[in-house]
User: Which sequence fits this backbone?
């Protein structure tokens, strides 16, 4: 990437973020839009997020499963 010298690197999909690509590029002095490995883990691992919330005394939001309106009409 140093050959093209970008002003900003935007990383996606999620698997590259979870591999800490953002952190590695920041160490090489690139401007990066995206979380480091720890921040990406909050997004990519539901279990990690639950434990993080629990250890910081945050109440996670309740999960809801929604059905499409077309299926609700059949019920």
Assistant:
């Amino acid at each position: 990437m140093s050959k093209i010298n970008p002003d900003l690197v935007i990383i996606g999909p999620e698997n590259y973020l979870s591999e800490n690509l953002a952190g590695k590029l920041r160490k090489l002095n690139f401007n990066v839009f995206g979380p480091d490995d720890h921040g990406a883990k909050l997004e990519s691992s539901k279990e990690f997020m639950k434990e993080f919330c629990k250890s910081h005394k945050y109440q996670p939001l309740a999960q809801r499963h929604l059905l499409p309106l077309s299926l609700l009409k059949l019920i």
Remarks:
- The chain has five helices and two strands.
- The two ends are 54 Å apart (CA to CA).
- Residues 18 and 38 are 8 Å apart (CA to CA).
- The chain has a mean pLDDT of 85.
